[in-house]
Each structure stands twice: as C-alpha cells, then as structure tokens.
Sequence to fold (764 residues):
Amino acid sequence: MLVIILIIFGNFTHPLITPYGVVVSNSNCSQIYLIEDGNLELLISAPGAGRYYTLSPDQRYLGIKLIGADGLQAPAVLDLKEKTITKLTRPCLRVGQVSFSKKGDVVYTLDEQLIVRDEDGEQRYRLDTYANITPISPDGRYVVYNDFDDRLWLLDLRSGRRRCFTGKGYFRPIWSPDGLRIVYSRLDGSIEVYDRDREKTYKIGRGFGPAWLSDGEHIVYYLIETDGHELKGSDLYLARFDGLKKLRLTRTGDIFEMDPSVGPDGQIIFQAHAQAELRVGRLVDNCLDDVRVVFKSDDPVESGFYQINDSFDDRDSIDVPYLHQVYDVPDWFNGHWACAPTTAMMVIAHYNRLPYWDCLCSSPYQHISHYGRYICERYFYREENYNLQAQDPSGNWAMGGYGYMWAGSNHPYTHMAPYINNHNITSWRDDGPPFSLVVNELNQGYPYGLCVGLTAAGHLVLTVGQVLDWHTLIFNDPYGNKNTPGYPSYDGKYARYDWPGYNNGYENLNNVYWGVGARGDWEVPTDTIVDDLQFNDGFYLHTDAPSTMAFWWDALIGYNGHIWWTYTTHATSEDTCYATWTPVLSAAGNYEVFAYIPNDHAAATGARYRIYYAGGNQTVVVDQSQHPGEWVSLGTFPFDLTGGYVYLGDATGTQGRHIGYDAIRWSYRGPGVVEEAATLKPGVRLQSTIIRTRLNLEINLSNGGDVVCRIYGVDGRLYDDLYQVFNPGTHSLVIGTAGLPAGIYILKTEIEGRAYLDKFIVAE
Fold:
C-alpha cells in the first residue's frame, strides 16, 4: 500500500514550456502538473515522478521514472498530448531516468546496463556501474553517465570507446542543443562545461540549475545568497560556455528566481521561490525583458508525502544517539540555526565522550535531553573552554558548540571538524565528497557528517547507513524527516534521502557541499579499574542542579591522561559536585580500594572518599596534596557482585581548593563474601566493540555446558563457527578475527538455551 499525505503548501519547480502547456512539478517532486490556459491539471502523483524528468525534442513526450508502493521502479514515457503513460520495462530494483535523441532514440538504464531503444528494437551496453541519469546526445551517438565515484564518462555508442572527463564529485550532465558540449554540476554547488571535440573543461563558477540556450553557446542558471543561516536572495545569470562572459539577469530583492529553463523564441521560464508563482521573460540582447507572471496559484500547491512500504532491509545502520536541534535543547535556546553543533554532538554522544548533562525540554512533548545543553551552554572539556558566544535567531546569546562554530567570523565549514577533534575524535573536512567516500566510511563503521542542499541555505545531517546498494543513504537529520509532513519534525532518526543525481522516491540532498569525517573508538569496558571517562559504564559525574558542567574542569594528566577537577566548598555534608565509581567484579571477596591522585589540580586537604561495600559504608579522608601521582589505599572492604561503589564530593569544609577526580582501583585480597552460585546470571559481554585481530568475550554460565559462537556479516553470511564446553562460572574467550575484512559484524552466542546478539566492528 502506498500512503500519500497531501499538505497544502510549497511552490512550483522545474518548469518546461511545451506546445501543450507548461509542465511543472511541486516542491518535493512527487507530482507533475500541466498548466494550460490558466488551468492547473495534475498528470501524475507518485514518489519522485517530478524529479529529473526530460522533454523529447518534439516536445510531446516527457521521460519520467515511476516508483511503486513496493519501492520498485520502471522507466516510463508520459504523452503530453494524449495524457497517457507507457512503462518501458517491468518494475525493477534499479532503473534510470529516460532521455531522448533527435532521431527518436529512447535511453535509460536497467541496473548496470544501458538500454537504447529505437524503431528497430533495442541495444544493450554494459556500463559496469549503475547510473540514474544517462543523457544521449542529440545525434544519438554518445551517452554520458556517472560512476560510483561521481565521475562523468562519455561513451561512444558506435565504437564503444569510453572517456572519463571529470574528477570525483560531479552529477547531472546536460547536452547542448548542437551536441558539442556538456554542462554539469559539481556536488559542492558549482558549474562546469566540457567541450566534447576539444576535450577541454571550462569552469563557470558557483551556480545551480544550468540550462542551455538554443545557440549552444550560452547557459542560464541561478545563484543564491545566504547569510550562513537563511536564504537572502536568488537571481538568474547568463554565462558563455567558456566562463569568460557572465551577466546578471535579475536584481530583485523580494523575488527569489530559481529553476530556469529555456523555451522557444528566447523565452526563459522560472519559478519565484516559495510563492507558488511562475514567471517568464524574453532574452533580448543579453537582457531579460518583458518579465511577467504566467501563472500564480490562488491556492497553494499540494505537496504529497509518500510512505513507501518496501520489503527491502536496510544495510546495518550505525545506532547513533539522536538529537534534535530545536526540540532537544533547553527551552530558552532557539535551535533553528544549530544543525551543525547538533550533528557534531550526535557524533560526540556516539563515542561517549561526555557525561549526561540533562535538561527538561517542553516540545514536542515534555522529555529529558542528555546532551542538549552542550549545544548552547558553556562547558570545559580536554582543556578547551567553550565560552565563545553567538546569537540564536531570537537574539539569545549562546555558548557551547553553537558559540564555538558561529562566534564572530567562525563558521561550521572551518570549525565543525576542529570541534569534533577537540573531543578526541579524529575529524577532517572533505569538499564535495563523492558517494564512494561516504559509503567507505559507513562500511568501516564510522558515521559521516554532510552539509547538503536539503534546504536552500544548506543543512548539516549525519550519515549512518545505506539502503540496499542504492544511492539512498540513511541519516540522523537534526531537523526531522523531510519525507514526512512538517519540517522541523521529531522523526529525524534514520531518515532516508537520495544522493544528487539519483531518484529512489525520497527527498534529494540536491548538493553535497562538504563533509566531516568522525573516526573514534570507545573506552574499554569497566572492570576492577574505573576511570573518569567511562561514562554510563562505571563512572558517573554529577551535573544536575545545583551542579552543572560549568562547575567542572579537566586536565590532560593523571591515570590514562585525563582527570576532572572542581573547587571544594566550605560545606561539610552537602555536596554540589560529586562523582561515583562502580566496578565490575568477577568474584565476591575482600578488595583493597585505591584512589589515583593526579599530580596537579589535587590540593584538597580533606577529600572525603566514601566507600559503599557489602553491609555498610565508610568515609576515608585523604589529603590529596600529599600524594601527587600516587595510588592511595582507602582500605580493604568486602564486596559482593550486586553493588558497591566509591563516592567523592566537593564538600570538605574548606572553600576554594582544587579537588581531583581520577581512577579508582579494586584489588582482590581473598574471599570474604560468599556469593551464591544462583546469583551469577548467564550472559555475554564484549570487552570492546571495535577490534582488529581478535574478539575478547566474557561469558557467565550459571550451570555450565555448551557455548556456540557464530560470526555473521550484515548480509547474513556466516564467517566463523566456534564450539566449546565450559563449567559454571565466568570465562574468557578469544576469537581470532585477523582474516575478516574491515566492516560491521554480528556475533551470535548460544548459551544455556538462550541466544545473545552483539554487534562489533573490525577496523582497518
């Protein structure tokens, strides 16, 4: 069943002048209309039907792609005269858009094959790659297509010779009317022209939506202006194919001209963005003259949002914590401009780099956000103070990630990767990254941030997966899901968007301006040593009121190269800031507990360590200033497997001294608490989920018996099968993985009648 939801809003896109009227699509390219004698007639409504359509040379036929309720696709031809649609193939997983030559050829792709149909039948050509847009030259001799790296290739259908004429990161080739040149776009939002015979490339510069004039010498396109947050203007430009001559055709402050196309007699038709209005002008002596409104809808255009209920499984997506830039931040902060810091914070949360810093959010319903305050409030991490300030859309001054990226002349383009790097995650920026680069990061288990053209002013999203082998990626979109009604919306986790130049029925990224890599790892799982960065896994840093992350500082010293510190207070019983350390013990017994004292930021003379053990608790006062760089014993205590932890607060009775928080260690000193065998619950724990040559498991067995471990790829392929027998108790098991290629895997462990599934990543 194909579910469609009609929403009344939007604007016209991709207008074409034909003898039968003006063909136009709606804002999300799900409908095709024909405007004739002032009447708007709906010709077809289907996912992606209005994206990348082409007009035959005789202007009677429209080449389109039909996508059904099950996600299957078929190339088709829409007869504008008879208003009928003819499918060219049965529905398949991957087909291409339809193009036409002057001599009557109809061209499209079927998976990795190019199909050329004429009155005598059809010919097939192996491309060895899937391309969605494959325009044929007007004379029917050449076809242009792109590969997995977004490089453009020229195929001579007579000789079979192929020539790659671009680097990586290009899409949407369009032939000039005389077939001598090809105009195309870069992913990062610029235009180039290739001269077929001279084998020469010309750079036009920044621009969008190029269209050829009938002389084959000039193109018309549009160029937008933004302030980094919002669309401020858009005008039409004219350029000679070699870029040596450029003219600005419009200078309207209140009308944003976009999507130009060229009609007969020098007519240029275009849309007035967000006004449900079409205008046309005539190009005379390189000037756009006699501009007038040719259609304006009194009722806003319907936008159809389709829910494709396909039966295809996603590739294994990376489960990254989701944050919404508007709904998961403090109520006082207006997050409509905060897509970049929100996307970065999802990466930081994924690698568990920061403790929870909860805030209560009111919209779209009352809920707790663990990381929203980092986006807009001051904090200190890895000796970096996030106290730079920038204003949000409501004029509120914000700090945190938002201030870091937008203060003064700062911009996410220059500051997003450094911000992620500052959180001990390897990050870098790629300009106009090709599809192959993004998929390579995903296949290695790393999320990847993209600045894309989902909105006119640009938008940051986080790539976390891929649908099948399609050019459809899965995202955590911090503004919501643009495939569903309402944007912003609170359904942005695992939103699907199509790559520029491709069409699988989802909203399109339109452009990919730049990307940000994010390669990190996780702290080792907690055992008898609990360190101060093992958040939600043994270590807890208190940030709730009256505490806040603004009261915590850190330093790159101490055990494992990191500590937290704060100032002591004159109180003796009630703490403002505190931390707890909870170990994972393999056996009950007596343990000597040690606290590591860093060699700086630890001047408290009355640090009160409170040890909670089996049957009680005890406070031990330590003069941190006397033990720099030492493990200090807090005593020996009985611990069972159900609890026990160490607590340290800032209430020492002395105001203003530095008190340090580093690692706590439990050292076994012999039996002391008898643990009932029945309390040992069966289970499996991976010591690390990112590995290279071996997988270390900890297996708990209450009764003992068979242990079966199987390693599967995300495609279901079985890579390894291991069988062993163990007695009751806790056991370590090592599985060699040196022979596995880098990627994501599933470990299935069967013990005592139950199966446990764990995801892990083999890194390069």
The first strand starts at residue 3 and ends at 8. The two ends are 42 Å apart (CA to CA). Residues 3-306 form a domain with the Methylamine Dehydrogenase; Chain H fold (CATH 2.130.10.10). Confidence is low (pLDDT under 50) at residues 1-9, 674-679.
